[in-house]
Amino acid sequence: MFMGEHSHTIDAKGRLIIPAKFREELGEKFVITQGMDHCLTIYPMAEWEKFLQQLSQLPLANKETRIFRRFFTAKADTCELDKQGRILVPAGLRDYAGLEKDVVLTGNISNIEVWSKDRWDDIGAYDDMDSIAEKMQEMGITI
């Protein structure tokens, strides 16, 4: 399970350190791709395969299905950690997420999100948590 918030920097070559507490759970190979809200998402291979299985069950005749599948798979890339615990984030993904220097990695239960610090600061305020909590309760989540 991934949880926590970690601040790092991405270097000029696009390399990003993965926090030590995330590395073991990620395994040797994992996938990085576009995520919702202009972040990147890193999936352990088993979670990525589960996600692909779900995507493959969607009807291709549906235009939204095709768009949704492309969004997650077109820029997806398999990663491996280097000896310093870094990955190379492809340029297209860095551009999508606005990653320039300061980056925040957040654990999101079954995956990791990678945010530009500025975007994370913007969305991290959680001004409307009462309303969101009510909607989650309607979906069966209680706190």
List the helices and strands and how they pair.
Blueprint (H helix, E strand, L loop, with lengths): L4 E5 L5 E3 L2 H7 L2 E6 L5 E5 H12 L6 H11 L3 E4 L5 E3 L2 H7 L4 E6 L4 E5 H7 L5 H10 L5
Relative strand content: 25-35%
**Spatial order of the strands forming the largest sheet:** 1-7-8-4-3-5
Basic shape: globular
Mean pLDDT, rounded to whole units? Answer: 94
Between the first and last Cα atoms, what is the distance in angstroms? 19 Å
Poorly predicted runs are none
Q: How many strand elements?
A: 8
* Structural class by sheet pairing and helices: alpha+beta
SSE succession? EEHEEHHEEHEEHH
Approximate helicity band: 25-40%
Query: The biggest beta sheet, please?
Result: 6 strands, antiparallel
Give a quick precis of the structure.
The chain has 143 residues and is of the alpha+beta class. The protein is 38% helix and 26% strand.
